[in-house]
Amino acid sequence: xxxxxxxxxxxxxxxxxxxxxxxxxxxxxxxxxxxxxxxxxxxxxxxxxxxxxxxxxxxxxxxxxxxxxxxxxxxxxxxxxxxxxxxxxxxxxxxxxxxxxxxxxxxxxxxxxxxxxxxxxxxxxxxxxxxxxxxxxxxxxxxxxxxxxxxxxxxxxxxxxxxxxxxxxxxxxxxxxxxxxxx
Amino acid sequence: xxxxxxxxxxxxxxxxxxxxxxxxxxxxxxxxxxxxxxxxxxxxxxxxxxxxxxxxxxxxxxxxxxxxxxxxxxxxxxxxxxxxxxxxxxxxxxxxxxxxxxxxxxxxxxxxxxxxxxxxxxxxxxxxxxxxxxxxxxxxxxxxxxxxxxxxxxxxxxxxxxxxxxxxxxxxxxxxxxxxxxxxxxxxxxxxxxxxxxxxxxxxxxxxxxxxxxxxxxxxxxxxxxxxxxxxxxxxxxxxxxxxxxxxxxxxxxxxxxxxxxxxxxxxxxxxxxxxxxxxxxxxxxxxxxxxxxxxxxxxxxxxxxxxxxxxxxxxxxxxxxxxxxxxxxxxxxxxxxxxxxxxxxxxxxxxxxxxxxxxxxxxxxxxxxxxxxxxxxxxxxxxxxxxxxxxxxxxxxxxxxxxxxxxxxxxxxxxxxxxxxxxxxxxxxxxxxxxxxxxxxxxxxxxxxxxxxxxxxxxxxxxxxxxxxxxxxxxxxxxxxxxxxxxxxxxxxxxxxxxxxxxxxxxxxxxxxxxxxxxxxxxxxxxxxxxxxxxxxxxxxxxxxxxxxxxxxxxxxxxxxxxxxxxxxxxxxxxxxxxxxxxxxxxxxxxxxxxxxxxxxxxxxxx
Lengths: 183, 608
Fold this sequence. Notes:
The complex is a heterodimer.
Chain A: H1 2-7, H2 38-41, H3 69-81, H4 84-88, H5 111-120, H6 135-146, H7 157-160
Chain B: H1 8-23, H2 29-34, E1 74-75, E2 88-95, E3 107-109, E4 112-116, E5 123-127, E6 135-139, E7 161-163, E8 166-171, E9 175-180, E10 186-191, E11 206-208, E12 211-215, E13 226-231, E14 237-242, H3 247-250, H4 268-271, E15 289-292, E16 297-301, E17 322-327, E18 333-338, E19 353-360, E20 363-371, E21 376-381, E22 387-392, E23 399-403, E24 408-411, E25 422-426, E26 440-441, E27 448-453, E28 455-461, E29 475-481, E30 488-494, E31 499-506, E32 515-517, E33 521-525, E34 530-535, E35 541-546, E36 556-559, E37 565-571, E38 597-603
């Protein structure tokens, strides 16, 4: 209850739900497929899997709100209201926190990796938003970030898991299907 | 050691100073300080300013960031002077291996140099008696990496202080540590704040007698600002004074006598805020402290209020953007002066207060001279907080002047930001007409020397939410050069007439500290990496050297074991100066990369 106690006196935070969450980012139409299951998202590791040359297919989880204009608008509203802009700047190009529009992602630039970074927080100052925001709101924030073009495309998930950049050349021996790269 | 002829008057002053050093006891700074009367001004002083240079540290050493209690950053060394400054060459260098902005001044005590890095706040001791100045020891305090993401303006450290054989400094994750200067071993470590509330610590501790004064950073993070005193031997907290809240919390009692009426009344630190907003209203104490040993008062400023969006916090928002005089023993406030009431532009009042005694309108006044971020230079009576003079030192358009009868600035309503309205051409921007980078003063000229900015901004306010550990900010800012096109300027200021004496305009920002010496030289650096030596009387640039990175450090000077004078400065761009990393002031040039190198200069340089 500590978070609730601290934020409750602040009148400008219009509403708080009973479960300690901030008022969500509006009413974008939920996608038909629904939002990804938390149990599946939780299988995405922050680090590389020891002993596993392959990787989890959960990395390819798409953002159900990607490209949804209403959700992007609601993500933008959340981005300002949750003070994201204070660290990552109003143009998302970074200040105290990293640039969210470039192709470099310290903790992975796939939609599900960005989702997990917002959900769990990261050790150099990024707070964990999993208690303050719903999964739905976090996916909308990811959609807003994706709308700036810096996130990795889901189609390249196998490539992106090692932090590689889209469009680069790959030597045959370094390709995922190369003999030495098979488990 | 070479000596140069001086006026007989100057010899007399030097003699008095040396006598005071010889008679003072190293173990009792307070008594040595009180026994030293201000020396008379030399005949060719432009203002007649006099100073108390307590604690009168040895002329060849540099023990604290500001060198003395009065915060003069003035050295009596004069082997390097206006006649030979052009012969300065690199003597030796040291790279500390860290990233981010290097804002600290190197210290020299007992033939050892001490430098502290930005996060992770590593402290190095370098042996000046050996060729190549090797590392004697290093101290790695391992602060929490979480703090990196809570520091508004880079993970800087503004320096270490030496006192009583201890090196004392603050870690970004809100700890104050004391390290044994001989061994490099930690003596005590005190947790002072909480990064989960957005607090960090970046300022240099200030030591007077047995007390260590420290404060927090986080004016953009909705912290509750404070200054605290610790016992130098144990690190135990003796008192803490908050910048907002009840009189008891602010340490305001019956001795508190502000000069101006609007700062008189009970619990103004609560009443000048909407309900409860003072609890995270900032007023952090993130820069400099000075001390008058005769009055036994410390002087410090407080930061901007949080959030940075003024329409969310109607009222004067006391005691943010305020200069305080406090009893050094008890922390009880004696007077306060709010430079920017209801601060709408993030102007703060944390910049240094230089203590000088000045002839003002025919009377010698004990003053403090303060270059505020709001672009006004104040000459204030330090006994009672009366503003004697206030005039702009940098380009500004937010106000039409300071009413000296009330102490209140006259604000231009056209330059007041409101949520979701884009406001164009507000000057200076949030960085101010000058930021934390400290000025220096010379008793030979009686002038004050400062690195200042020439900046404006377009700003749009967005309502901010208070969410602990996130920015409580709301300003969307685009900064650019003010009229003239230069981003920086180095000035000499007359604090008796409140006028600029001369200036050197710089293409890039000037955000370095300043060193003044008895060689009639002043030194400063630029954000694009030029380190310059200037004639303190004429403003003529006598020597410049391009360093490996931009300069936001603080130059110091010392005598080596060989008896020769050296000048030291760190190069490592970062801090607020990087806001202009995307501006290309010269066609075809790019802003310099970060760095982490200490440069030391001597006449002719040193080679084996």
